[in-house]
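Lesson 9: reading folded outputs for more than one chain in a single document. The general rule is that every protein is listed as its sequence immediately followed by its structure tokens, and records are never interleaved. Here is the first one.
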Amino acid sequence: MYSPQGFAEYSSSFQERQHHLSLIIHAILNSRPEGFDIVQEAIKWHVNTGLVHNPTSARVSIPSIVVPTGSLTPSTRANIGFKYKWRWFPSLSSLFLGLYYARLLVLAGAERLDTTLTVSQMQGKFWLEVMASSGVGHLMHEDGPTKLAEILADFWR
């Protein structure tokens, strides 16, 4: 049952989890090498840090995200937009909820839900699937492609 006190406690704990997640992301970005000597190093780093859990998919996808420039440098500068990340997430949630179509949200872990999405999911406004028990990380489509395909097939039925 909904209670304002319980919601306030959840909202506060969400902000704490969001701050904790922000610290983890900063740590990952700060530990990211400026470049790799060979593609295999880039693959190994992504698997060892847990960014990609599936070594087979890492061997396919990681070569496409490093660019040869004397050494292999990541083709994305993930830390550039990081300071803006928490500003656009709330509006992204509202845009998602404003869609007039059936909605499915697949997450690696429920701690990534903001307050708006949590309340809306409790009201049944979209279908939520959490793949935490499937051993997936940020790249769910690579770490658990079969499980994600099953979720999508069930949603489309």
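And here is the second record, again sequence then tokens.
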Amino acid sequence: MTTYGLPLFLEDRTGRITESDYSDIYDRPPFLRLTQTIYPDRIARKVYVFESLNHFQSVRLGMMASPEPLAILEFGLRNQLGTISFERSQNRRFSMERYLRKQSLLGSSLVRSFRASDGIEYTWGFHTTVNQEWTCTNKHTHDLIGHYDLKPPGEPPYSTSGNVLTVYENFRYLAGGNPTELLASLIIMRHIQAHNL
């Protein structure tokens, strides 16, 4: 893997939980796209994480780099947590509750840990670090892996959306690896917060 001496700054083009493009502001891979399918008869939806061409190519060509999703998040009735599967990783499928576990029985629902494919546990927390909306750390060493921030309300628009998932270089494989565990787990955490689960 090429090193650049900079974190990966994945701009979230829309700030929406389920439909957006994520591309590095310096045009480095990975390029990721979220799409969703809504099932009104079941009041459920699936969110797909695809590897994409870079933002400009994918918009112009209207296509993904890979037709197979890296991850599928299936939410249940009335926005309840459902299942997550990683298609390129021997069809690993988990319940979201099992995949992202609360830190303690009485603890906040907005601080949860997951075990990544590298065997290490990582923790997402909401407003656990000053000036960071969501923070991901190594559960045991507390090393900072990355953070996600939405553009502050009232900040004027510039040439970017202002919504950024920052992934520190040593942990880039979690953002664009196979599977894209950092982004998939963040989507679930943001869903939990949005629906007060």
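What the second record shows: Residues 181-194 form the longest helix (14 residues).
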